[in-house]
Write a structure and sequence with these properties.
Blueprint (H helix, E strand, L loop, with lengths): L1 H10 L2 H36 L23 E10 L2 E10 L18 E4 L1 H9 L12 E5 L12 E5 L2 H5 L5 E3 L30 H26 L4 H13 L4 H35 L17 H22 L1 H5 L1 H5 L13 H16 L5 H36 L4 H12 L1 H31 L7 H4 L1 E5 L14 E2 L2 E2 L3 H9 L4 E8 L5 E2 L6 H4 L6 E7 H4 L14 E5 L32 E8 L3 H14 L9 E2 H54 L4 H39 L8 H19 L2 H6 L10
Parallel strand pairs: 2-5, 3-4
Antiparallel strand pairs: 1-2, 1-6, 3-5, 7-14, 7-15, 8-9, 10-14, 11-12, 12-13
Helix pairs in contact: 1-2, 1-7, 2-5, 2-7, 2-8, 5-12, 5-14, 5-20, 7-8, 11-12, 11-21, 12-13, 12-14, 12-21, 13-14, 13-21, 14-20, 14-21, 14-22, 20-21, 20-22, 21-22
Length: about 775
């Protein structure tokens, strides 16, 4: 029977060959997209794991106990910035040949040596040394391998020193092992000195990555699986009729089932082989898409052995099972097919899973979620899963309900025929639009959730002048208690503030330098300009002293009272926008400190006003880093840097949401096209008979359009409404913020997706004329 089935496929005429090729192509496309989606989720996991070693030496990674035979490695993690790009910097000093070695390099760098990632090495070669290279003492001895990097664009440097140098560096610590896991909670990112440090490229918390992977898997895999299922049912009705005829001439149920399974399985096997080829073609281009803000390595887009076996075996098996299920009426009675017996209509219970998913999320809105991040993920995920499954289950009933409404409100022959056919088999009608319905739900949830998160984490944007001020916070390290006794640093003795200010002013593009001098007893009252309230702090704000003459050269930082020689200024040197109030509008309180005494005070911070050009900002940053090494965990930064870093997480999630939307909508369009094509192929003889009895082609086009548009618009409206409801419940539970309506772009995307779908339906009209000619109406 298997041989006969293959002969029927290959020698069954033009129609059989075309059906077989179309089925194989559709399955191949679906399998290729499925493998790409699975590989992308694997790449996200690999991407996140590659950040683990960056957490070495922080409080989130407990220090490993001393082990016999392992020499400690002095370790100092810090961050740097160049032209808005974060750089992970690690200063290390091996105390012996058995010291731990960071991943990606063959050995620890010695004094005067450093390893850089390929992207950073290229940047060092193409950038003037006074803007970047002078920050790193020594010479490049090699590049960091891909095993230590999350992306080809990663900027990482490992700088070698002597143990004596790093032993005196603030916040350096000896480590005996390199971290291998990303912390589960980023809220505890203080280092052992109690000073805040978190890698600028930290990865994603375990609970968050679990949620992301789960949601992305549901959002991307569900439309692909629906597409594959739709593809395997191409020409199902025509095959039912052929196999019913075989039953009438004596074929047994088992023989017919085996013939059907052979045809579907052969096409699925060929499609799976083609799908793996499509995956390898898509692998490199998809890896270049910045899903989480940066591209992947193509090698990270990998498939595990279980993934390969699940697809290679599962898709043909699923095709065979689908073929057998599609012929269940043939197995019961071939006359049931010949007479086209109407299947039982769907019942109202089908909406229960959809309502149960919304109720599950609503329960946690009322009662709250578990305290642990993992518990929250597993509390909310079933609700979204129930909603997605519920939309698929409820779709046929909603389609039938819409068809009955159409039948009651129209008298046009085409609309009545369409309503009657929809009510006769709403499952088949919904199957064609199910992928798009899920895509619209996913789009709605993703866009509304991201919009709400953006509103929650809204960052006040500074003026261009304020964003171009380079700030080096020296007080955070506790190194510099006076200008006369600077502490030693790895790059050499710390420079006195006055000569350093002169060097900074000599840089083209630098407009002024403001040195914040230390005064331990000085504070700014909390009520001053509502500064304390804006910072969420009712206590007085620790302050330093600035020269009014210097402050006048950087107007973006504020001004002094008329006639004052010195004024109080925030100790950390940061004076960014506070709830819409910019520093330029602040008059800082005067202090009674003679200008001649300022140079005798210690240095809390240095602010360098620039014109915002990259050379000016980066040269100033380089001078400050060379003079005051390890003064702050994050190094000198601008307000623009802080704003970009604060927005980077939201931007990454926005990029991920956009990717899911852009992937799911085309897949849904393919599903719709396959469903319509299958429906036309199955109904070409009835449509031909209608044309012979006098039905106009325009009437048939109306039937085809309404059969697809009615379930599309009706269930899409339910999916979009459900998406808003689910996003609102998620915002209340997980984001702790009231839901925020999306912008115009969302409505344009939604309307565009529906219009494209209607265009796909209209594109089948020329095919309708070709396949409904009189010759099709012949009896077989």
């Amino acid at each position: 029977m298997i041989g006969l089935g293959l002969r029927l496929v290959l020698n069954g005429g033009r129609e059989a060959v075309i059906r077989f090729v179309v089925l194989a192509v559709a399955v191949g496309l679906g399998v290729g997209l499925l493998l790409t989606a699975v590989a992308a989720t694997n790449a996200v996991t690999t991407w996140n794991k590659s950040h683990a070693w960056l957490w070495t030496g922080t409080a989130s990674v407990p220090a490993a106990p001393a082990a016999a035979g392992i020499a400690p490695l002095w370790w100092h993690p810090s961050s740097d910035v160049f032209d808005g790009q974060n750089i992970d910097r690690f200063d290390v000093a091996a105390t012996g040949t058995s010291s731990p070695v960071p991943p990606g390099i063959p050995r620890d760098p010695g004094p005067g040596q450093y390893y850089a990632s390929p992207a950073l090495a290229a940047l060092l070669r193409s950038t003037p040394a006074d803007e970047l290279g002078d920050r790193y003492p020594g010479r490049l001895v090699g590049t960091i391998g891909d095993a230590a990097l999350s992306s080809p664009d990663s900027l990482v440097i490992i700088v070698g020193h002597t143990p004596a140098q790093l032993a005196h560096a603030p916040d350096a610590a000896p480590v005996t092992s390199i971290a291998t896991t990303v912390p589960g909670n980023f809220g505890q990112f203080l280092n052992r000195k109690g000073l805040g440090y978190m890698p600028p490229n930290a990865g994603i918390e375990k609970s968050t990555i679990d949620l992301i992977l789960s949601v992305v898997a549901l959002a991307m895999l569900a439309p692909v699986l629906i597409f594959i299922a739709t593809a395997t049912r191409l020409s199902a009705a025509r095959r039912e009729q052929r196999f019913a005829a075989m039953r009438l001439v004596g074929a047994t149920r088992g023989q017919v089932s085996l013939l059907a399974a052979t045809e579907s399985t052969a096409a699925a096997v060929l499609g799976v082989a083609a799908g793996f080829g499509i995956f390898f073609l898509l692998r490199a281009p998809v890896a270049g898409i910045p899903f989480l803000g940066e591209p992947f390595f193509p090698a990270d887009m990998s498939l595990s052995l279980p993934d390969i076996l699940a697809v290679a075996i599962g898709v043909p098996v699923a095709a065979a099972v689908a073929a057998r299920l599609a012929l269940r009426r043939v197995r019961i009675s071939p006359l049931g097919v010949a007479r086209r017996a109407t299947p039982n209509p769907p019942r109202a219970w089908r909406v229960v899973p959809l309502l149960a998913g919304l109720a599950e999320l609503g329960f946690f809105v009322v009662h709250g979620t578990p305290a642990s991040p993992d518990g929250e993920v597993w509390a909310l995920l079933p609700g979204f899963l129930l909603i997605i499954v519920g939309l698929v289950i409820a779709g046929p009933w909603l389609t039938m309900a819409a068809a009955r409404v159409l039948a009651r409100r129209t008298s046009h022959p085409g609309a009545l025929i369409a309503a009657r056919r929809l009510a006769d088999d709403p499952r088949a009608a919904f199957r064609a639009v199910s992928g798009l319905v899920l895509a619209l739900f996913v789009t709605t949830v993703a866009v509304v959730t991201i919009t709400t998160q953006d509103a929650k984490d809204l960052t006040q944007f500074a003026s261009p002048a304020a964003a171009a001020v380079v700030t080096d916070q020296l007080a955070a390290s506790g190194q510099f208690t006076s200008a006369a006794e600077p502490a030693a640093a790895v790059a050499g003795p710390a420079a006195p503030a006055a000569p350093l200010a002169a060097r900074l002013r000599a840089i083209p593009g630098v407009q002024g330098v403001v040195v914040v001098r230390a005064d331990p007893k000085l504070t700014i009252p909390a009520a001053f300009h509502d500064l304390g309230a804006n910072l969420g702090n009712a206590a007085p704000i620790p302050a330093g002293v600035v020269s009014c003459a210097q402050l006048a050269t950087v107007p973006a930082l504020g001004r002094c009272p008329a006639g004052a020689a010195a004024a109080a200024f925030p100790k950390d040197g940061f004076a960014g926008p506070l709830d819409g109030m910019t520093s330029a509008g602040i008059t800082w309180p005067a202090v009674n400190v003679p200008a001649s005494r300022l140079d005798t005070l210690g240095v809390d911070a240095i602010n360098v006003g620039t014109n915002g050009s990259v050379p000016a900002v980066e040269q100033a940053r380089t001078v400050l880093e060379s003079a005051y090494a390890y003064a702050a965990p994050g190094g000198p930064s601008t307000l623009g840097d802080l704003i970009r870093q604060d927005n980077s997480g939201n931007n990454a999630y926005q990029q991920l949401a956009n990717t899911v939307i852009l992937v799911s909508l085309p897949i849904a369009g393919c599903t719709l096209a396959a469903g319509i094509a299958a429906g036309l192929a199955d109904r070409k003889r009835p449509f031909s008979l209608l044309r012979l009895t006098g039905a106009r082609l325009a009437t048939l086009r109306r039937v085809v359009a309404l059969e697809s548009a009615v379930p599309l618009l009706a269930v899409a409206a339910v999916a979009i409404g459900t998406g808003f409801a689910a996003a609102a419940e998620y915002a209340s539970v997980a984001q702790h913020h009231s839901v925020v309506a999306p912008g115009v772009a969302y409505y344009l995307i939604t309307a565009g997706g529906i219009l494209v779908s209607l265009g796909i339906i209209a594109a089948t009209f020329p095919l309708l004329k070709r396949i409904t000619g009189p010759e099709v109406a012949r009896n077989e």
